[in-house]
């Protein structure tokens, strides 16, 4: 079974030793993705902008792996403040309202104080 590593080119991937996504057979595992602007590297202050950026990075990785959001069967959201749930819920619904993958949302600290959300997905193409 072929294993394919997908990189976004972000320097931490090589430094820490991870891939943006790993494709193994019919599965695609996308690493936890924060809301850094993929073009500038800046982290927006607004949690909604962070969610939009995270989905842009996730969708790019899925596309490179020949998957799409429609293939997502599992999503995990990490937020740093419970109040963000109500703020980002409409954006999550825009992406997954009809796909409706299994989902978990966890309130936790992230590795940098400017990070407010991290999203990881698992996709399956059967």
């Amino acid at each position: 079974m072929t294993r394919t590593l997908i990189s976004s080119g972000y320097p931490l991937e090589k430094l820490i030793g991870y891939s943006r996504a790993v494709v193994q057979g019919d599965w695609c595992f996308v690493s936890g993705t924060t809301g850094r602007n993929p073009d500038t590297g800046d982290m927006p202050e607004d949690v909604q902008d962070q969610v939009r950026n995270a989905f842009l990075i996730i969708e790019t990785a899925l596309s490179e792996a020949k998957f799409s959001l429609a293939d997502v069967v599992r999503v995990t959201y990490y937020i740093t403040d419970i109040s963000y749930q109500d703020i980002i819920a409409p954006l999550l619904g825009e992406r997954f309202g009809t796909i409706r993958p299994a989902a978990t949302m966890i309130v936790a600290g992230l590795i940098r104080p400017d990070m407010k959300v991290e999203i990881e997905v698992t996709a399956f193409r059967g």
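The chain has a mean pLDDT of 95. The longest helix spans residues 47-64.
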